[in-house]
Structures are given as C-alpha cells and as structure tokens.
Amino acid sequence: xxxxxxxxxxxxxxxxxxxxPFGWTSFDLVNRVRSDMCKYSGLKKxxxxxxxxxxxxxxxVLVICTGKATKxxxxxxxxxxxxxxxxxFGASTPSFDLETEIDETYPIDHINxxxxxxxxxxxxxxxxxxxxxxxxxxxxxxxAYDLARRGNMSKMEPVExxxxxLEIIDFxxxxxxxxxxxxxGTYIRSLASDLGYELSSGxxxxxxxxxxxxxxxxxxxxxxxxxxxxxxxx
Length: 234
Prior knowledge:
This protein is an alpha+beta fold.
C-alpha cells in the first residue's frame, strides 16, 4: 500500500485494539501510537484518542481511534468491559491496589470459598460504588489521583455501576482470581476493597487485565512489537 493511501486511511479513521503494557498510562500508548504513525506515514499531525482509561498497573485491551474515527470514542466507551482480576485479602492500601503501600492488615482465617460466593452475590446487578481517591475521576477539573498524590484525599461521591457477571477463576488464600463483566465506569479496585470489607477483612487489587471492550478482545489485540507491520496491510 503506498503512502498516500495510508495517509488517507489514517485520516479517515482507524479503530485499533491494543494490548496496553504494564506500567504505561493510557495516554502513554496514545502518544506512542500517534508518534509512530506520523513518522511511518509522513504526517505532521494526526488526531488520536483512546476509548476508556486503563490504569498504569493494569494491562490489556485499550481501543485507540485515529482521524475521523475518534467520533466513535464515546459509543465504544459505553460498551461493557471484561476483566480478569487478582484480589489479595487480609490487607488494604489507600489506592486499593499496589500503587500505594499496605496501611492496615486484617484476619483471613475465616475466609473460604463458600463465604466468598455468598458475599459476591451482593455485587451482582446495579450497585453504588465509591471511586478510589487514586483515580482518573475529575474533581473541579482536576484528576483525583493528582490531588491524592499531593496529599489531598478528596471525598469521592458514590456512582451507580452495573456488575453483569462475576465468575471465580480460583481461590488460594489469600488471593482470589475473578472474571468480571461490567458496565462503563466500574472500578475493579473499589470492588476488591468492598469485597474485602464484606468479608470482615480487607482487600486490594493485586493484578488486573482487561480482556474485552464490547467486541474488541485481547485475542485480537496488537502489541507494541508488531503493530506497525499491520499498517502494511491497510
């Protein structure tokens, strides 16, 4: 495919599914894709955006749109999400994940698979959830995580989300591995913390991988090692 045709396709718009690496922000990946595509095609500027933030400590599906396809970002964000999550019981962290150090420890000897199954029922369907203070949620135009990292632990208001399904992959105390299907705006970190609380213990997210956003799945996701080769086939 010649460069002119590639330029036209990038500007008209592509919807690409990426496997975001661990440690990268969603904007890191957007910036990398924009830079690489401009360099590869010869474009000086290209509109690029992502359809749904994924935390730096999470991996998996991040949908990125270019050119005129960025108009589809809102509709893609509304699609249900699927995750595989690791939750550690018996401790809590301020960020509800590994970004911050453990601040409290709790008993876990009473936790078993039957009790977990019973408590998971509390989270099926539409629920109220308080976003983590270390989140991308905006407070007066500022990201909550920016405020939290400055020591300003803002009060987070509860939001309604929907847990479509919860499936236990396995449980080896103190870690539970879950498969989750949920609506836009669901914080899996908050689910981990809330489940720990319901178990009369503590809980935090130890790992997170997004496996699907609507029809965009990890099985078809591109990674940084070979995605540019895909441009040759556009």
